Structures are given as C-alpha cells and as structure tokens.
Amino acid sequence: MPENKTPNAPTLQILSQYIRDLSLEAPDIPFVFEGMTKPPKIAVNIDVQVKKTPDDKGYTVDLVTKITATRDDTQKTVFLLEMTYGALVTLTGTPDQIEPLLLVEVPHLIFPQVRSVIATLTREAGLPPLQINPINFAALFVEKMKNQPNATPRQ
User: Fold this and answer.
1) Does a cis peptide bond (omega within 30 degrees of 0) precede residue 27?
2) Where do the domains of the chain lie?
3) Which long-range contacts (CB under 8 A, 24 or more apart) does 52-57 make?
C-alpha cells in the first residue's frame, strides 16, 4: 500500500541523542534534610539552543536545564543540577517549517529522556527522585517569537 505523503511536508530524523554536560552538586547530603518540615523550593529553567552542524547537513538541538532546590527555612542549597542534553537531527522543509521543528518538535521528542536522567540522577544522589513537569515547548516558541520577531536558529 503506498504511503500518503503530503507534497512539501517537512521531514525530521533524530540521528543521535546524548548528554553533552552534566553536573550535580548536593553539598550537604545527607544532612541537609535534618529538621526540614517543608519540601524544598525548586526552580527549573530550561532553554532550547539550536546550531547548524559544521558540515551544514543538520542541526544540534540542546535542552539546557538548570534546577536549583533550596530550603525555605535556611535558604541552604539542597542541590544544583545542570545538564545539557542534545540531539543531532536532519530535516527538510521550508524555513517557516524548520524553525518550529527545531524549537518545538525536537525538544518535545527528547524531553522524556531529560526527565528520566534527572529522576535517576537525583535518586542516585540520595535525594527523592525529581519528576519535573512536562514543558509546553510550543508556548515557549510563541513567547520567543513575540520577544524576537526576527529570531532564527543560530548559525
């Protein structure tokens, strides 16, 4: 049975996924929890960064994540986690199709692995496993376009 391909439909292929950089600092483990009556305050910051590959045949898409957990009562750092998780992708499409693929679809596809690494790493560090909430990358893209109407993937 023939495939029903739409003419000029964009294509996307993830060639590889990888951890580019990873750091976890938990300076006072296991004593940081002594006397803690409230869960720590957790701040999550995720940025999407896109670059063309040196051979101009694809792109790298990185999710740069920084998570800081602090105690409410003492403001002590419970942990600081920084990770850059990336994907090497190839795609076809018009310029107006490529940008949303790179800034919305690829992050959406690789985000489950980011969540898994974070949950595993925090658990292995002796912390409760952190399950960060899903991210609406489409909303982030719309916000970015509002702030930078001429934004394009970095070369």
Assistant:
1) no
2) 11-147
3) 52/153, 52/154, 52/155, 53/88, 57/90
Quote the CA–CA distance of 129 and 126 in Å, as a whole number.
Answer: 9
pTM, two decimals, is 0.83
Question: What are the start-end ranges of the H helices in 14-136?
Answer: 95-100, 106-124
One DSSP character per residue, 36-52 reads --SPPEEEEEEEEEEEE
pLDDT tens-digit series, residues 9-67: 888 999 999 999 999 999 888 888 787 788 889 999 999 999 999 998 899 999 999 99
Can you tell me which residue has the tokens 């980011």? 114
Give the type of residue at 29. Answer: I
Taking Cα atoms as reference points, which of 131, 127, 101 lies closest to residue 117? Answer: 131
107-149 pLDDT per residue, tens? 999 999 999 999 999 999 988 899 999 999 999 888 888 887 5
CATH superfamily, with its number, for domain 11-147: SecB-like (3.10.420.10)
Among 79, 137, 90, 86, which Cα is nearest to 113's? 86
Give exposure, 117-129, as e/b (b: 16+ Cβ within 10 Å): bbeebbeebebee
